[in-house]
Amino acid sequence: MNTELPKVKTQLFIDGNWQDGSLQKTKAVDNPATGEIIAQVAQAEMEDTKRAIEAAQKAFPKWREMELRDRVELLHRVARLLEENADRLAKIMTIEQGKPVAEAKAEILTGAENFRFNAEEARRIYGETIPAPNKRVYIVKKEPIGVVAAITPWNFPMGMATRKLAPALAAGNTVILKPSSETPLSALALFEIFEEAGFPRGVVNLLLGNSSEIGEALTASDAVRKLTFTGSTAVGQKLYQESGETLKKISLELGGHAPFIVFSDANLVSAADGLVAAKFRNNGQVCVSPNRIFVAKEVEQEFIKLVLERVQKLKVGNGLQEGVNAGPLIREDAIRKIDRQLKDAAEKGADILLGGERLLGEGYDQGNFFAPTVLTGVTEQMRIFHEETFGPVIPIISFVADDEVVKLANDSEFGLASYFYTENLERVEEISNALEYGMVGVNDMAISHPETPFGGVKHSGFGRENGHFGIEEYLNVKFVALKYRQ
Question: How far apart, in whole angstroms, are the C-alpha atoms of residue 52 and residue 176?
């Protein structure tokens, strides 16, 4: 197993140039599977953030006026380069983030599709003409907003960046990306591709550094007209408040606590396959990961047996190793949070059927590894019922009636993703209507695609990504009233 990090830039990218931060500071990046420091990356200060904003603002007029076919071709070029470099980019992601390399490569290829889809969507930004009386013409135009700031998380370092930057650029905006300090290398590799593709100076800018300081500078700037953020609800609320002073357009994709419901008439094999695949994708560190598993009492034991059979076959380890299904957690504190939840659940009557502990020994000691875990007897009195886990834990909750499980599923401040399995078409209609979530998967866990809207309600935020809904988030609507004869 070759664990050497492929060569990648480690500086800021501002106004078309790679450069160190103004105070020459750097920050270490480590590998969560080994604890090794793998890179030192430049850190932006206030002066650097201001220069990035100025560069994006200066580049905006020419970028928005660029011939559409030329802008579209640049976006297609990024898609091609992502595909051509997918193996290298996947290895970079796995080393800094931990997920299995096959998952990382799939994320890179989805990123390419994000650019390809939005390149074509740029051709379909249609205005409209409204019928008007008395020799008038009413015209509705859609225009780019201006400078867009994007702040992205560590769990999908390429997926989240491409999902935000592709529609923003396609709509004719210039961008500033602030990725997570835990996973900056994937963003750096993406900006190497922007440079190779030939983007004009100032159109794409990359800031690395203290999230709070850079975030405050971006929200305080009147030149930044749009902020898009994926991350925790607490940070999203702070950014929302700060952006109020400059009245920015804002999109927030925040926390999730997805219910997964198995009704008595469900295909249990299909439900077990879907649950285990989704729960252990990125080792549970996914905002749409199923977190509360509701199972009809009459099929509970059979379903638990199917789940245990599948979880016991999972291989945990370094994401670069062949056959690994689950890598490390991103940080030590993630393990502490899971420990607290499991201890609380056990003290209040839950049974841990599998796992429940940190993995130690050869290949595990230096990393943040936790055993895939299944527990039963979970109730509303336990922390794990109300807190998002973000880890490899399946908590099973028994239910009897449909109205009971809907009430339990909706008993959350979050409203991002939800799932249920049933063979009853009438139930499909009733339950999908009753669930208070922005997305519902019915007999299917694949709810995120470049073509379809992604986003939540309640404390999971607002705004949509992907599809034509996504590009609309980066446009302003202008109304023109023309009287053509006096």
Answer: 7
Report the chain (486 residues): mean pLDDT per 10 consecutive residues.
90 98 97 97 97 98 97 98 98 98 98 98 95 89 98 98 98 98 98 98 97 95 98 96 96 97 98 98 97 98 98 97 96 96 98 97 94 98 96 98 98 98 97 98 96 97 96 97 82
Check residue 326 and report its DSSP letter: B
Which of 45, 103, 287, 465 is the catalytic position? 287
| Bridge partner list, 19 | 12
For residue 253, indicate whether it is catalytic: yes
User: CA nearest 111: which of 62, 156, 47?
Assistant: 156
**Two tokens at 396?**
């099973």
User: Taking phi first (over 0 means left), then psi (-120 to 50 degrees means alpha), and beta for anything else, what does residue 450 get?
Assistant: alpha
Instruction: Report whether 56 contacts 205 (CB < 8 A).
Output: yes
Select which of 96, 103, 121, 253 is catalytic: 253
Total Cβ atoms within 10 A of residue 245: 10
**Local structure of 369: helix, strand or coil:** coil
Residue-wise burial string across 309-326, b where 16 or more C-beta atoms lie within 10 A, e elsewhere: ebbeebebbbbbbeebbb
Interacting residues of 101 by C-beta distance below 8 A, sequence separation 6+ = 90, 91, 94, 319, 320
Residue 332 annotated among the catalytic residues of the structure = no
The pair phi, psi for residue 248, each rounded to 5°, is -75, 155
Contact between residue 253 and residue 455 where contact means Cβ atoms under 8 Å apart: yes
**Closest by alpha carbon to 194, among 80, 54, 59?**
80
Pairing between β-strand 37-42 and β-strand 26-30 as defined by DSSP bridges: antiparallel
- Laid out side by side, the sheet with 417-421 consists of 351-354, 373-376, 393-399, 290-296, 258-262, 417-421, 439-442
Rg (CA), the chain: 23
CB 320 within 8 A of CB 95: yes
Distance of CA 4 to the CA centre of its chain: 27
